[in-house]
Structures are given as C-alpha cells and as structure tokens.
Specification:
This protein is an alpha+beta fold. Helix content is about 50%, strand content about 5%. The longest helix has 26 residues. The radius of gyration is 18 Å and the shape is globular. The N and C termini lie far apart (about 45 Å).
C-alpha cells in the first residue's frame, strides 16, 4: 500500500516526524500537498472532506479507508504495521509514551515564539516570548533532555533498547535537530551534559536508511513552523 501523507508544504513541522519514519522504513507514500497544482487550499479542502474519522489538523495519513491524525497516533500505527517499534504490546506502548513526551517538548518549543497566540505575529508578543524562551532554555531543555539522557544506556543505545532504532529515535533526532537550529547557543552550552542524546542524534544522522532522503529535495530546511531562530530568544 502507498500511503497519502498530508501536511503543509514548505515547512518540516510535525509532518517531519512522520516523514522520517516513512523514509527510514522504506515505506511508499505520497506527499499530497506537494502534488502538481496543489496549494494550501487543496489540503484544507481534503481535510474537510467527508470521512468517518476526520482529522483535526495536519499531519494526517490516509491508509486505504482509514484516516489517521495526530503525529504520535500515526507513528503508533506505522510502528506496529511496519516493524518500526518493538513487537510486544508493552514495548509499543512504551515507545508511544516517549513519543508523547517528545510532543510535549515540541509544543513548548513552539510556544517560545508564540506564547500568547498562534494566530498573532511574533512581533506582537516579543516581550512575552523573551520570558517564555528564558524559562524554556534554563529549565525545560535540561528537564526534557535529562530525562532522555537517563533512558539511554550509553552512547550506542537506542531508546527502546535492543540493537535497532525505532521511530521514537528518529523523532528524538528531529527534536534535537530543531533545537540546534532554534537555540544554537544554548544547545552548545548543554551538549556536554547529554552525551547519550547527542550521540543518538549523530547516529541517526548517519543511518544508511536516511541518506537518500537527507540528500534529496524532499527534506525541507528549518525556517517557519515549530522551530524558528530568533537571536534574541537564544542565549548560552
């Protein structure tokens, strides 16, 4: 089966967590918002079309007659269906729990530049963003990365244990990658405190399964979306 992935074109965003799993798993899919002639309205029209289980927002995956929304939910499905998660129920739920924890940090990273309203410009909430970003840098980055550091048993470990990556390792990679883009000064300062996390980031960067994707135009650069670089929000 070839899946249809729907997400806003032009930004990695939350859709990138799903793309990484599809690409690393060698799973056929179509990025429907990048179809010839497609635009933002195409995605909105499809999202609002009649479905038994309509999505609230992108990303969502169309798998035959099923429509799956929410990043963690999509990855839970792909993990079981395509061997990107442990075989046991306990293992699959553990990986899903970690994915939901990553989703919590992703939301907090987004709110550093839109702490009041996602519909207002950053320039309209800069004072509040500066306060939110300071707390995120000083308290929340260490709390989240410290948690994942404790889970990784050495610099050659994967989050679910065993000798193979799961989709949550790919997601932690993308989270760290986004933080390195948005908060380069802070991440350079704390890198030595989390050697296991940064080692995992390097190993996912080098995964043979992802090299073709990384070298292709399908992978979008950071800019708009969740992870944004505002120099005034970053500090060592």
């Amino acid at each position: 089966m070839t899946y249809d992935l729907w997400y806003w074109d032009g930004i990695p965003g939350r859709g990138e967590f799903v793309r990484l799993a599809l690409e690393a798993g060698g799973i056929p899919y179509r990025e429907r918002a990048r179809d010839p002639g497609a635009d933002e309205g195409t995605l909105i029209e499809d999202m609002r079309s009649a479905r038994k289980h309509p999505p609230f927002a992108p990303p969502y995956l169309v798998a035959g007659k099923m429509t799956l929304g929410q990043t963690a939910n999509i990855l839970l499905f792909l993990g079981e269906k395509h061997g990107l998660a442990p075989e046991s129920l306990e293992g699959r739920l553990w990986v899903n729990q970690l994915q939901l924890t990553i989703a919590d940090m992703v939301a907090e990273a987004h709110d550093t530049h839109h702490p009041i309203s996602a519909s207002d410009y950053y320039e309209d909430q800069k004072e509040e963003a500066a306060r939110r970003a300071r707390v995120f840098r000083e308290e929340r980055i260490p709390k989240f990365l410290g948690y994942f550091e404790r889970l990784l048993d050495g610099t050659d470990a994967w989050l679910a244990g065993g000798g193979k990556w799961t989709y949550v390792d790919l997601s932690l990679y993308h989270l760290v990658d986004g933080l390195l883009y948005a908060f380069p000064k802070r991440m350079a300062t704390v890198a030595a405190d989390y050697p296991n996390v940064f080692a995992l980031h390097e190993r996912v960067t080098a995964l043979p399964e992802l090299q073709a994707y990384f070298a292709s135009g399908r992978r979008l650069p950071f800019g708009e979306g969740i992870f944004r670089r505002y120099r005034e929000l970053d500090a060592a």
